[in-house]
Design brief:
Layout: H1 2-13, H2 18-22, H3 27-50, H4 55-78, H5 101-108, E1 111-112, H6 117-123, H7 129-134, H8 143-156, E2 163-164, H9 166-180
Parallel strand pairs: 1-2
Helix pairs in contact: 3-4
């Protein structure tokens, strides 16, 4: 919740953010921001209280819902991106990527192999994550067929298309965290 508030505050109210340097955010966007946030909080906290739910239960349920949604979002978004199998290319001094957009997406993103109703529902068809990046305006219902074409294309031209099970992808993400972590200085003298 704090990160969401910081992100909104940063994008809308911090004049040093890139978006604020490039564009002027219309006043109507500020109105929409506060209006829709107010409606969101009203129907998830205030309305249940008005219908007889205690404040503690309403606020607890709200926090549990945010926590659960955050966990699902992390599983869906981190596993196809940040893992030991993904490449993390550095940009050049002229702020250019070393490869084309398509090749960059293939190098930095992977798909989740499970293709069943539960995975599609749970991940919102983001198990076809490479397609989501390459063709963001194409309806997700077409992603399985387009992915089959991409696999053939990648194999034909020796491109780095990767696909893992959800478990393997999460394990690779965990391994990346371990690889990049620093052990705490338990035995250092801090006095």
């Amino acid at each position: 919740m704090i990160r969401v508030v910081q992100a909104v505050h940063g994008a809308f109210f911090n004049k040093n953010r890139t978006v604020r340097k490039l564009v002027t955010i219309p006043k109507i966007e500020f109105v929409k921001l506060f209006l829709f946030k107010s409606i969101f909080l009203f129907y998830l906290i205030v309305l249940p209280v008005m219908l007889g739910v205690s404040w503690i239960i309403a606020c607890s349920a709200f926090l549990i819902m945010l926590f659960a949604a955050s966990i699902f979002a992390l599983i869906v978004l981190l596993s196809p991106h940040a893992n030991t199998e993904a490449e993390f290319p550095a940009i050049s001094e002229s702020n250019k990527l070393p490869d084309s957009w398509m090749l960059h997406m293939l190098q930095t993103t992977n798909d989740i192999t499970e293709d069943n109703w539960f995975t599609r529902f749970f991940m919102g068809c983001f198990n076809y994550h490479v397609m989501h990046h390459l063709f963001p305006h194409v309806n997700h219902a077409y992603y399985p067929e387009i992915t089959d074409l991409l696999k053939k294309y990648a194999q034909q031209y020796d491109l780095p298309y990767r696909q893992y099970s959800l478990w393997t992808s999460l394990k690779n993400h965990y391994n990346l965290l371990r690889k990049n972590s620093k052990p705490p200085p338990f035995f250092e003298d801090t006095m």
